[in-house]
Structures are given as structure tokens and as C-alpha cells.
Amino acid sequence: MTLAPRTPEAITPDPPGDTARPLLTQSWLDLAFLHWVADPDEVARVLPAGTVPDTLNGVTYVGLVAFRMHRVGWFRLPGIPYLGSFPETNVRLYSVDEHGRRGVVFRSLDASRLIPVAMARTAFRLPYLWSRMAVERDGDTLTYTSTRRWPGPRGAHSRIAIRVGERVAEPSELEHFLTARWGMHNAFFERSVYLPNTHPRWPLHRAELLQCDEDLIQAAGLSAPTGPPVSLLYSPGVPVRFGRPARPGGIPTP
């Protein structure tokens, strides 16, 4: 049966609510957002039950997002300095559910700490993967590298280099669509879960792509992108708070 969602909620650069009693806190730092146009039919086949591809002007996207996760913490406890801080690179899609809630769906999440990867895979059924990773900065140039270790496909990799440019004074509708996401959809024991998040408005910058050598998108079961990304942005980052899902959910990430 084809899902008939309600009219999707508005795209807003600021969160629709607050998270007074967070389930989880963390910061996302030094983010590179790379996006390509994706086939809606292909995307639909890999989304959790109860969701369909979210589109803007009839187009949906696949994102490759590289960043530094910083001090993940539970409830109001201080963030963990070592196990809670690590490089991460996500392959993500854009979704909307039958309630009209827009979100992201993660096809893969490469991270450099084995214990958080094992916990997220076992307890929350998220597609985390253990990889050898680094984020290096030289002036206004950032380089993000990742080589997968476990569980595979072993050797799946990415190397992204960008040069950070000027601040985006007025992000476009597309730039808000790709970055202002206030929740994630995930399948948890074959049940669809929506986990909300809040954070300040993204500080976004233009960026120049110096290098992009990756096969993470194809390793995530999607067609390899052709050509340069249609959108490339950088953000120094934001602090993030996650609320409680209606049912058990996963560890969120951008």
C-alpha cells in the first residue's frame, strides 16, 4: 500500500520547539555538507516503513556529511571527552512520514571509536561502521579521510578536501532543506521511530571543493553520484539536544 503522508511541515531554519529535558547532548563541529541529486524511486526502496522521500520541487538528494562529533553525553551529564569525541562521516537521505514530519535517514555512519560503534549497532540498530578516520585543518582548508575497518565492505573510503569561504548571509530554500532537519527516522525492531532534535540556526559558509574521492555512497546501496555535488556547504558547528522518542530509538547524528 502506498503511503499518503500529510502535507509536510514547513522548512524552518530554527527548530519548531525546545528540548527542556534532553535525552542526549552533543556538538557537531567542522561540518562539510556535500549533496547530489538522487533517484526518488531508488531512495524510496531503502527508507524505513512509514516514510517516503522528502522532495523540494520534485527533487530529492543524497548527502555525504563529514564532521567531528564532540562530547556525546546522556541526559544532563557532562559529555564524554574521549569515547564521545570522534570523526564521523554519514551517508544520509531525506524523508517525510505520515504525520508530515521531515527528517533524515542514515544509510551508513562511519566513526572512529569502536565502542560507540558496537553500542549503536547492537542496542539501537543504527548502521554505524568502525573506520580509520581523521579531520585535519590547515588555515581555511579542511581534509576529512575515512577507511572502513568493520564490518564492511572493508576498505570503503572517502577523502574530502574543502576550502572554507565567506559566510552565507541568506541561505537559499535548498540550503535550508538540506541542513535544517529537526529529527531522524529509523527502523527499530521493524517499527518506525522519529527522534527529534534542536540546535541553534546553522552558521553556514560557502566552500570550494578541492578533492572528493569516495565510494561510501555506493557502499551504502545507492547509485554512485556523477559529477560534482550540486550543493557544498561548511559549518563551524552547533551544540545539539535530543528529545525523547515515542518508542525506543537510536543515537542521533547530523
Task: Explain the layout of strands and helices.
Elements: E1 24-38, H1 40-46, E2 51-53, E3 60-74, E4 86-97, E5 102-111, H2 114-124, E6 128-138, E7 141-150, E8 157-167, H3 173-179, E9 183-188, E10 191-198, E11 205-214, H4 216-219, E12 231-242
Parallel strand pairs: 5-6
Antiparallel strand pairs: 1-3, 1-12, 2-4, 3-4, 4-5, 6-7, 7-8, 8-11, 9-10, 10-12, 11-12
Termini gap = 30 Å
| Tally of separate domains | 1
Query: What pattern of helices and strands is seen along the backbone?
Result: EHEEEEHEEEHEEEHE
Output mean pLDDT: 89
Percent of residues in helical segments?
A: 10-25%
Record the strand order, biggest sheet. Answer: 1-3-4-5-6-7-8-11-12
Low-confidence stretches: 246-252
Q: Which structural category do the helix and sheet elements fall into?
A: mainly beta
Instruction: Give the CATH topology.
Output: Acetoacetate decarboxylase-like
CATH-wise, what's the superfamily?
Acetoacetate decarboxylase-like
Radius of gyration: 17 Å
Strands, count: 12
| Spatial shape | globular
Q: Report the CATH architecture.
A: Beta Barrel
Strand content: over 45%
Protein name: DUF2071 domain-containing protein
Organism: Streptomyces coffeae
Pfam families: DUF2071 (PF09844)
General description of the model:
The chain has 254 residues and is mainly beta. It contains 4 helices and 12 strands. It has one domain (24-242): Acetoacetate decarboxylase-like (Beta Barrel), CATH 2.40.400.10. It has helices at residues 40-46, 114-124, 173-179, 216-219, and strands spanning 24-38, 51-53, 60-74, 86-97, 102-111, 128-138, 141-150, 157-167, 183-188, 191-198, 205-214, 231-242. A 9-stranded mixed beta barrel has the order 1-3-4-5-6-7-8-11-12. Strand 5, helix 2 (114-124) and strand 6 (128-138) form a beta-alpha-beta unit. The longest helix has 11 residues, at 114-124. The two termini are 30 Å apart.
